[in-house]
Amino acid sequence: MSESVITARHLSKVVNAPEARLTILDDVSLDISRGSSVAIVGASGSGKSTLLSLLAGLDLPSTGEVILAGRSLTGLDEDQRAALRAEQVGFVFQSFQLLDSLTALENVMLPLELDGRRDAANRARHLLGRVGLDHRLTHYPRQLSGGEQQRVAIARAFASDPAILFADEPTGNLDAATGARITDLLFELNREQGTTLVLVTHDERLAQRCASALHLDAGRLQENSA
Amino acid sequence: MSGDLPLASRLLLREWRAGELRVMLLALLIAVTVSTAISFFTDRLQRGMVTRAAEFLGADMRLSSRDPWPDEVLQEAIKNNLQHTDIVDFSSITSSETEMLLSSIKAVGPGYPLRGEVRISDEPHGSERTATAIPEPGTVWVEARLLSQLDMQVGDLLEVGYAQLRVAAVLTHEPDRAGDFYSLTPRVLMNLGDLPATRVIQPGSRVRYRLLVSGEEADLQRLRSWLEPRLESHQRITSVADDNRQIGSALTRANQLLGLASIAAVVLAGVAVALSASRFAQRHFDTSALLRCLGASRTRTLRLFLLQLLGLGILATLLGLASGWLMQAGLVYLLRELLPPDLPGAGLRPLLVGAATGMVSLFGFALPPLLRLGRVSPLRVLRRELTPLPGSGWFIYGLALSALSLLMWQFTDNLPMTLAVITGGAIAALLLGILAWLLLRASGDRLRHLGLAWRLGSGQLLKHPAAAAGQVLAFGLILMAMVVIFVLRTELLDTWQAQLPDDAPNHFALNILPDQEQAFAQALGEIGATSAPLYPVTPGRLTSINGQPVRTQVTKDSPGERAINRDLSLTWASELAPDNELVTGHWWPDLPEAEGHRVSVEAELAGSLGIGVGDQLGFVIAGTTLEAEVSSIRSVNWDNFTPNFYMVFSPGALDGMPTTLLTSFHLPADQREGLRQLTRAFPAMTLLEVEAILAQLRDILRQVTIAVEYVLIFVLLAGFTVLFASLQSTLDTRLYEGALLRTLGARRQLLRQANRLEFTLLGTLAGLLAVLAAELVTWLLYRFALNLEWQPHYLLWLLVPGAGALLIGLAGALGTRAVVNQSPMGLLRRG
Question: What is the pTM of this model?
Answer without folding.
Answer: 0.64
